[in-house]
Model the fold of this input.
Amino acid sequence: MSTHVLLLLGVTAVWGTTFPLMKSLLVSLSGVEISALRFVIAALCVVPFLLRVPRHTWLDGLLLGALALVSYVAQAYGLEFISSNRSAFLTSLNVLMVPLICVALGARLSPRVLLCAVLACVGIGLMSWEGGANLKGDLATLVCALAYAFYTIVLSGRAARHDLRQLAATQIAFMALLACAWLVGAALLEAKPSNLLARATPHWATLVYLGVIATAAMLFLQALGQRRVSADKAAVIFAMEPVFAALAAWLWIDELLSSRAALGGALVLTAVILSELQPGRLKSLFTENVH
Done:
C-alpha cells in the first residue's frame, strides 16, 4: 500500500477511538458543547499557522470547516439518542454516498471502486447494525454522513493547491468560531444559565485528546493523505473506522468480538485491499483553477 493510504488508515484508526469517548461525554455535555470545546482546544494548537494565510486558503478553509462542523455536530447530537455502534454504521454510509454523489454530478467512476464501497457497507452492517432505531438520532447521523461525503469530495479536489498546515488551521479556526456561535445561540434560546466549565472539567483529558489528537492532528494528516488519494478511494478507506472501533473495544475493555462482527471486519478489510490493488480515478467536480 502507498504511504498516503497508510496515512489515511492511521487517521481512521484514531477516529475509531472517538465513538465510545463521545458517548461517555454525552452524560454531562450536549453534542454542541462537546463540539465547541474540542474545536476551541484544536484552534489553540494551530494559531501559529494562521499567519499570512492567502485568501483562497481562507475561502476553502471556510467551506471545509462548515462541512466538517455540520458532520461533527450532527454525529454528536445523534449519539444522544442511538448507540455508538449504530452511529458508526450510519456514519459510514458516506462510503456509498461519495461515489453516488459524484456519479449524480456526472463524474466517471470505476466499477471496482463502487463494488468495494458496497462490500464495505455490507461489512459495516454485519459489524454495527442493531436495533434501537430513533428518528432524531438516525436522521442526524445521516446528515453527518452526507456532510462528510461532500467534505471528502471537496478535500480531495482542493488539498493540492494549499499549504496543508494552513488549510487545516483555517478549517479548525472556522469550526471553532461557528461552533461557539452555535453554542451561544442555543444557550440564548434555552434562556437559562449554563455551568459548562463545571460540567466539562472532569472530562478535560478526553476533551484534550479529541481536540489535539482527533481533530487538529488528524485534519492535517487527512489533508496530507488525500492530496494523493481520490475521494472515492478515500471513502472506502474510511470504512475501516468501525473496524478499528471494535478492535479498540476488544483490546481495551475486553468487549467480545462476535463471529458476525469478525466477518464484517474481514469484508471491510477486503474492500480496502481491493480498492488499493486497482484504484478508481476520480476527477473532483469541485476543483477550480487558481491563478
